[in-house]
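Readers of this paper often ask what the protein records in our data store actually look like. Nothing more is needed to write down the fold, since each code stands for a local backbone conformation. Below, we set out a record of this kind in full and without editing:
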Amino acid sequence: MPITEQQLLEVIARAPLVSIDLVVRNAEDRVLLGIRKNEPAMKMWFVPGGRIHKDEDLDEAFERISSGELGVGFYRSAARFIGLFDHKYETNFLGVKGIGTHYVVLAYELHLSILLDNLPTAQHQEFRWFSKDEANRNRNVHRYVLPYFNSARFDEAFECQYAALNARRDSFNSLLWQTPVLSLTAQAFLFIIALSQNVSDAARKIAASLALIVAIASIQLLTKHRFNEVDHAHLLQKLENEQGLIPINERRVPKLTWNPETWVARLPSYWVWIAIMLGFGICALLILIYPCWFKI
């Protein structure tokens, strides 16, 4: 059942609307803007777009809105998702005082070469291609449109930064698990000397002291690499959430079931290895304090 204007106004008064903005770029990297005929943002240069209807799939909404605003329906797969934006206005489409409009906007970018004379004029009375500099100088270009002019440059910078952060996280993760391997190698060598009956007491004490130092240093290094890896994971997850990407950096913990494998998988490996390193340190300390315990 189609929603009436009064019903829509009641929705606007109580809840945000979800809409799609079409950021159309031509070959010269200019963005298509039109002067809006209706509130909100009436008489301001704005990108084409429209709200999503109830029970309407996102793909269906994108094709309907692009058809109504550009004259040709496009598949959503032909566009690039720019991001999620929050638009708040003091006015509404009926001009009723005291009721503002809040849009949660899904912005998509399309690269098209279209004739301005063929564009629908139901929502806009004039169209024009704007460069970034022209948009910044024109006071009638709405402020909510300006971030869209940075989307291409931001996307390139985001991809580079995202790749660099992923590479750094992989590096910290690799260093994290190399630490216990190298530590165990050193500990095995030192404990062979510390527990050997064919070496002097001085050599045993030196080996035990070095084993204790290696254990403490390994715990410190393991903790440092863990902090850096987790810090980068949180930053990457935040970027993924902001850009609407698949959360590949989100930490997932297996659900606890009757399957024993889930119990083992839920154990935090970092703390397991911290306990192992701590155990080596305690053993080395005992050799130093109570050497007679380890003599046959």
